[in-house]
Design brief:
- This protein is α/β, with parallel strands linked by helices.
- Helix 3 (145-155) packs antiparallel against helix 6 and helix 11 crosses helix 16.
- It contains 16 helices and 31 strands.
- The protein has four domains: 1-49, no CATH class; 69-141, no CATH class; 160-450, Phosphoenolpyruvate Carboxykinase, domain 1 (3-Layer(aba) Sandwich), CATH 3.40.449.10; 462-654, Phosphoenolpyruvate Carboxykinase, domain 3 (Alpha-Beta Complex).
- A ten-stranded mixed beta sheet has the order 2-1-3-8-9-10-12-11-6-7, sandwiched between helices. A six-stranded mixed beta sheet has the order 16-14-15-23-27-24. Strands 4-5-20-21-19 form a five-stranded mixed beta sheet.
- A hairpin with a 4-residue loop joins strand 11 and strand 12.
- It binds adenosine-5'-triphosphate, oxaloacetate ion, calcium ion (CA) and manganese (II) ion.
- Pathway: Carbohydrate biosynthesis; gluconeogenesis.
- It is found in: Cytoplasm.
- Belongs to the phosphoenolpyruvate carboxykinase (ATP) family.
C-alpha cells in the first residue's frame, strides 16, 4: 500500500549531506555566494520589499469629473471629497484627512493631506474649537483584498485565514439583518411616493432624527485613527449605474463591499467624482435610545433626499448590501426599470431565467449552475433592454455546505472571500460548515468572477422563465407547478415561504412567512407597483412563470424530508431546456396548480405531494391550513388595482387557493 496518498509507491531518496565548509576549504562558513543586500537596517530592507504601484493609465481628453487634471491635483480632490463626506453638519467643515495607514512608519505610506483650509473655497474658515478637528483621520481608500486581510488580522478580533485562503470574520452580536430597526426619512416627497403603514418595511423617522444619527456616526468615525472608504458602482447596466461610497470602521466591512459591489477600474476610480449615495457604517457604536424613534440600540436609517444611509449598532455586513438594494428599489422604478430580489442565469443559447424567493429558498444555490452562465445571485434590474445584475459579487449561505452538492460555491471560498461567523478547526483552519455554534446564518461573500462561468459583464437578454421559489416546510406545495400570468402575480405578491426557525430549539411547527415581491423588507413602493411592472414585462416578452418548492416532501417538517437538491436541479433543468413546457399536466385541488406527471431524473410519485404523505387526512388538513394562510395574507391586497385595467386585478384575485 502506498502511504503517500498518490497511489504510487513512496520513493525514498537519501537526504543530502549538510556541508559546512566552503569549496576553498579555508574553514570559513559562507551561506551564499550572492552579493549583499542594498539595505543597512531591517526597515530599509522592508522598504525594498514594497514596490510602488504603477501609475494608472493617463487619460486622454476630458472624460470625467477629474480627467485632464494632474495626478496630484486629482488625488487631492479625491481626498477633499472624502473630507466633505465626513463633515460634521454642525461644525461646518470636514476633518483633516490623510491617506494611508497610521501604523505605517514610512512617510511614503501617508500621502496627500486635505483639510478645511486647503484650497477649498466653499468651506467656511472656522477657528479650531473642538479636539476632533486637531487630529488627522487616516483614510484607507479602496484597499486591495491583501491589504484588507492584513488590517483585519492585525486589528479585528475573530479574523483568521481559513485553510482555503478565505478570511473568517465575526459580525458581532448581530448575525442577521434587523428589519425592525430600519427607519426611512418621511418628508413631503417620500410621504407620497413610498409605501407606509401596515405590512410596509418603511418605518418612519424625521429628517432631524436622521441628522442626529448621522452626526453620531460621523463623530464616531472621525474619532477613530482610520476609516475605510470604498468608492464603487452598482448595476452593470452602464446607463443606469450608481456610484456609491461606503465609509466604515472595519476591514471586514470594506472587503465585504469590495466583493459585493462592482469594482471600478483604475481609470473609473480616478474619475469617480462625487458619489450618488453614501453609507456611514458606524456599526460598532450603538444609537442612543433616548433619541426619538429609536426602539433598540440598532438603527439603519435611509434618507433618500440626502442620498445617505447611516448604520448604528449592528456590524452585520448584509445591512449595507440590502440598504443599497432598497435604494435601487426606489431609484430604478422611477426610470421604468424593475428591481428584483432574484437570482439570474443564462443558458448557452441565451435563455435567461430569474429565480425569486425569500432568504434561504435557493436563489444562490440554483442560479449557480455549472451548465449555465451566472448573471447574479440576488439583486437584478429588468429594463427595456434586458436584465442586469446590481452587484459585483455573491452572498451564499454556507450552513451544511458540501463540496459535492455545491462545487462552484465551495471552490469560490478562497483567498479574497469573506466568511462570516463560521466555525473552524483551531489548528488546521478547516471550516466545519455543519457547525451552528455562532449562527445558522453563516455566509460567504465573494466576487462574482470566482464562479468559473460567471457572465461578465453581468447582463443578459429578456427572461424566458420566471421561477418562484418557496421552501414549503408544510410539505404540501408540489415540487414544481406551471403558472399562468395571474397565478404568477398572485404568488409574486404573496411571496410565500415557510422555513423552520431555530431548528435546535425544538420548534416543530413551520411558520409561514409572506413577504410581498419576495422581498418586502427591501421594497420602497407599494408591492402592486412592482407587480404591475413584472406582469407587463412578462407579457411583453412571453416569459413563463413556475412555482418550485425547494422545501419539504412526504410530510411537514418533522415527518417529511427536504426535497433532494439533485431533484430540484433536474426540475430546473427541465424548465431551462423547455421540455417541461411540453409535459402532460394535471390540476391540483385548493391551489389549482398545474403539475407535470413526469420529469426526467425525478421520481414521478413525488411530483404530486399527496402521494408522498402516509396520512392522507393530515395532508388535506395541512393543505387547507396553508390555503387559509394565503387567503388571510392576501386580504390586504384586495383593494388595490394592478396594472392599467381591472381585468388583471380580477384574474389575480381569482388565482389564489379556492375552497
Ligand atoms: N432542494 C433544494 N433546493 C435548493 N436549496 C436547497 C435544497 N435543499 C437544500 N438546500 C439548501 O438551502 C439553502 C438555499 O440557500 P441560498 O443561499 O440559495 O438562499 P437564497 O435564496 O440565495 O437566500 P438569500 O437571499 O438569503 O441569499 C442552501 O444552503 C442549499 O444547500
Ligand atoms: O440580506 C441578507 O442578509 C441575506 C440575504 O440575501 C437576504 O436575507 O435576502
Ligand atoms: Ca443568496
Ligand atoms: Mn437576498
Amino acid at each position: 500500500m502506498a502511504a503517500n496518498g498518490t497511489g504510487l509507491p513512496m520513493a525514498r531518496k537519501p537526504l543530502a549531506k549538510i556541508v559546512t565548509e566552503d569549496k576553498q576549504g579555508n574553514g570559513m562558513c559562507h551561506d551564499d555566494s550572492a552579493k549583499g543586500i542594498k539595505a543597512q537596517t531591517i526597515d530599509e530592507l522592508h522598504s525594498l520589499q514594497k514596490k510602488r504601484s504603477a501609475p494608472t493609465t493617463p487619460l486622454e481628453g476630458n472624460q470625467g469629473a477629474f480627467a485632464s487634471l494632474p495626478d496630484d491635483e486629482r488625488r487631492r480632490q479625491q481626498l477633499q471629497s472624502i473630507s466633505a463626506s465626513l463633515a460634521s453638519l454642525t461644525r461646518g467643515a470636514g476633518p483633516k484627512v490623510v491617506r494611508g495607514d497610521p501604523a505605517a512608519k514610512s512617510s511614503q505610506a501617508v500621502e496627500h493631506v486635505a483639510h478645511r483650509h486647503h484650497h477649498h473655497v466653499e468651506a467656511p474658515t472656522i477657528s479650531v474649537s473642538d479636539d476632533s478637528s486637531l487630529k488627522f483621520t487616516h483614510v484607507l481608500y479602496n484597499l486591495s483584498p491583501a491589504e484588507l486581510y492584513e488590517q483585519a488580522i492585525k486589528y479585528e478580533k475573530g479574523s483568521f485565514i481559513t485553510s482555503s485562503g478565505a478570511l473568517a470574520t465575526l459580525s458581532g452580536a448581530k448575525t442577521g439583518r434587523s428589519p425592525r430597526d430600519k427607519r426611512v426619512v418621511m418628508d413631503d416627497t417620500t410621504q407620497n411616493e413610498l409605501w407606509w403603514g401596515r405590512g410596509s418595511p418603511n418605518i418612519e423617522m424625521d429628517e432631524h432624527t436622521f441628522l442626529v444619527n448621522r452626526e453620531r456616526a460621523v463623530d464616531y468615525l472621525n474619532s477613530l485613527d482610520k476609516v475605510f472608504v470604498n468608492d464603487q458602482f452598482l448595476n452593470w447596466d452602464p446607463q443606469n449605474r450608481i456610484k456609491v461610497r461606503i465609509v466604515s470602521a472595519r476591514a471586514y466591512h470594506s472587503l465585504f463591499m469590495h466583493n459585493m459591489c462592482i469594482r471600478p477600474t483604475d481609470e473609473e476610480l480616478e474619475n469617480f467624482g462625487t458619489p450618488d449615495f453614501t453609507i456611514y457604517n458606524a456599526g460598532q457604536f450603538p444609537c442612543n435610545r433616548y433619541t426619538h424613534y429609536m426602539t433598540s440600540s440598532t438603527s439603519t436609517d435611509l434618507n433618500l433626499a440626502r442620498k445617505e444611509m447611516v448604520i448604528l449598532g449592528t456590524q452585520y455586513a448584509g445591512e449595507m448590501k440590502k440598504g443599497l438594494f432598497s435604494v435601487m428599489h426606489y431609484l430604478m422604478p422611477k426610470r421604468q426599470i424593475l428591481s428584483l430580489h432574484s437570482g439570474c442565469n443564462m443558458g448557452i443559447d441565451g435563455d435567461v431565467a430569474l429565480f425569486f424567493g425569500l432568504s434561504g429558498t435557493g436563489k444562490t444555490t440554483l442560479s449557480t449552475d455549472h451548465n449555465r452562465y451566472l448573471i447574479g445571485d440576488d439583486e437584478h434590474c429588468w429594463s427595456d433592454y434586458g436584465v442586469s445584475n446590481i452587484e459585483g459579487g455573491c452572498y451564499a449561505k454556507c450552513i451544511d455546505l458540501s463540496r459535492e452538492k455545491e462545487p462552484d460555491i465551495w471552490n469560490a471560498i478562497k483567498f479574497g472571500t469573506v466568511l462570516e461567523n463560521v466555525v473552524f478547526d483551531e489548528h488546521t483552519r478547516e471550516v466545519e460548515y455543519g457547525d451552528k455554534s455562532v449562527t445558522e446564518n453563516t455566509r460567504a461573500a465573494y466576487p462574482i468572477e470566482y464562479i468559473p462561468n460567471a457572465k461578465l459583464p453581468c447582463i443578459g437578454p429578456h427572461p424566458k422563465n420566471v421561477i418562484l421559489l418557496a421552501c414549503d416546510a408544510f410539505g404540501v406545495l408540489p415540487p414544481v407547478s406551471k403558472l399562468n400570468l395571474a397565478q404568477t402575480m398572485y404568488h409574486f405578491i404573496s411571496g410565500y415561504t415557510a422555513l423552520v426557525a431555530g431548528t435546535e430549539d425544538g420548534i416543530k411547527e413551520p411558520t409561514a412567512t409572506f413577504s410581498a415581491c419576495f422581498g418586502a423588507a427591501f421594497i420602497m413602493l407599494h408591492p402592486t407597483k412592482y407587480a404591475a411592472m413584472l406582469a407587463e414585462k412578462m407579457q411583453k416578452h412571453g416569459a413563463t412563470g413556475w412555482l418550485v418548492n425547494t422545501g419539504w416532501s412526504g410530510g411537514s417538517y418533522g415527518s417529511g424530508n427536504r426535497i433532494k437538491l439533485a431533484y430540484t436541479r433536474r426540475i430546473i433543468d427541465a424548465i431551462h431546456s423547455g421540455s417541461l413546457l411540453n409535459a402532460t399536466y394535471e390540476k391540483t385541488d385548493v391551489f389549482g396548480l398545474e403539475i407535470p406527471t413526469e420529469i426526467e431524473g425525478v421520481p414521478s410519485e413525488i411530483l404530486r405531494p399527496e402521494n408522498t404523505w402516509g396520512d392522507k387526512k393530515a395532508y388535506k388538513n395541512t393543505l387547507l391550513k396553508l390555503g387559509g394562510l394565503f387567503k388571510n395574507n392576501f386580504e390586504t391586497f384586495t383593494n388595490y388595482k394592478i396594472g392599467k385595467d381591472t381585468m388583471l386585478t380580477q384574474e389575480i384575485l381569482a388565482a389564489g387557493p379556492n375552497f
